[in-house]
Design brief:
mainly alpha, 139 residues, 79% helix, single chain
Length: 139
């Protein structure tokens, strides 16, 4: 399901319909991952589900569904905190798109503490700081 979802998003600039199709495919994948038998290693389930939530967040973003994307990216980070820079970035970007700049700044700062100076995350942090500086100067 993950590969089929990825394929839906890779077709150039994904249309809203393609993004929603990808969401559906990732949702099936998440349901399958979370429905694995209890005897399978929990770490495997967490890893697989974490990737699927991160990918579904990307699909939600392609459809401009920012709250859903933020929620899935956060779930992905909860499942896999370290080595998940894309999910940290995706939630930060969703928060920015919703105008929640301060929350985005806090989130991205925490992500940088965990991920180190990850490129896209550091770039997003600079964008957020630049946006917030005039607001903080006026306080």
């Amino acid at each position: 399901m993950r590969e089929q979802g990825n394929s839906s998003l890779r077709r150039g600039n994904a249309s809203t319909a393609q993004a929603k199709e990808a969401v559906k495919l990732y949702t099936y994948g998440i349901e399958m991952a979370l429905g694995r038998p209890g005897w399978e290693p929990a770490g495997l389930v967490r890893e697989e589900a974490g990737l699927l939530f991160a990918n579904r967040a990307q699909a939600y973003m392609a459809a401009s569904m920012w709250p859903e994307g933020a929620a899935d990216a956060e779930t992905s980070v909860e499942l896999k905190k370290v080595g998940n820079g894309k999910a940290w970035w995706r939630r930060g970007r969703c928060l920015v798109e919703m105008g929640r700049w301060q929350e985005a700044g806090d989130w991205v700062r925490e992500g940088l503490e965990i991920e180190g100076n990850e490129g896209e995350l550091a770039s997003l942090h600079k964008e957020i700081v630049k946006h917030l500086e005039p607001m903080e100067a006026g306080s």
